[in-house]
Design goal:
By secondary structure, the protein is an all-beta fold. The chain has one domain: Sandwich (Jelly Rolls), CATH 2.60.120.260. The protein has no helices and 17 strands. The strands form five sheets. Strands 4, 5, 7, 8, 11, 14, 16 and 17 form an eight-stranded antiparallel β-sheet that branches. A three-stranded antiparallel β-sheet has the order 3-12-13, with no helix packed on it. A two-stranded antiparallel ribbon has the order 1-2. It is globular and about 50 Å long.
């Protein structure tokens, strides 16, 4: 897309499977993320919502908000609040478009809490920071123990040659495999730029 002679692309955060994320500049104010820990959906214990307030998702369902019980995660395991996001189908995701301008010579760090349920096998995840259709940075290296969350960190350093990116952070849980598993995501902190 060309706007005012400046190429405008979207910065996208894409997360796969269990996730909680934060992306902010180290010295700057955090970039606003609507419903970052999925708590806007009021759910009874063990209940799901097939959509997440403030978030987009794959067409056809298979993802949404979930309030797990201790049969899914031990008490106190959820990083922030009670709810998590879940992704059930291969290739599915949840995402959010943010509106912030990417600043040149700035480091953006996205931290995502990746969860592995007690009752379903872990099938992996991918966390991506994207602009337009391009993946700027990604991670899929964490393997949390059953019933636990681990932090996945993605870092991107913008350069003076980067176009004026529009942070339309698509934070998404992307399911990688066809095994019968589920991904759960929690608290989504977003990119913080730092110089």
């Amino acid at each position: 897309m060309i706007t005012g002679g400046i190429k405008s692309q979207r910065l996208v955060l894409a997360m796969t499977f269990g996730i909680a994320a934060t992306c902010c500049p180290a010295w700057a104010d955090p970039i606003f993320v609507d419903n970052p820990s999925f708590e806007a959906d009021v759910l009874c214990d063990g209940c799901i919502a097939e959509s997440i307030i403030g978030w987009g998702a794959s067409a056809g369902g298979g993802d949404g908000a979930f309030n797990p019980t201790t049969s899914h995660y031990p008490a106190g395991a959820i990083p922030d609040g009670q709810n998590v996001a879940y992704v059930n189908s291969p290739g599915n995701h949840v995402n959010q478009t943010l509106s912030a301008v990417l600043v040149a010579d700035t480091t953006y760090t996205l931290e995502v809490e990746v969860g592995n349920r007690l009752d379903i096998p872990f099938a992996g995840y991918t966390v991506q920071l994207r602009a337009g259709g391009a993946v700027l940075a990604s991670d899929s290296s964490q393997t949390p123990a059953d019933g636990q969350f681990l932090t996945s960190t993605v870092t991107y350093v913008s350069s003076p040659s980067d176009p004026s990116w529009v942070c339309s952070s698509r934070s998404g849980c992307w399911r990688r495999t066809s095994r019968p598993t589920s991904t759960t995501c929690d608290w989504m902190p977003l990119p913080f730029p730092s110089s």
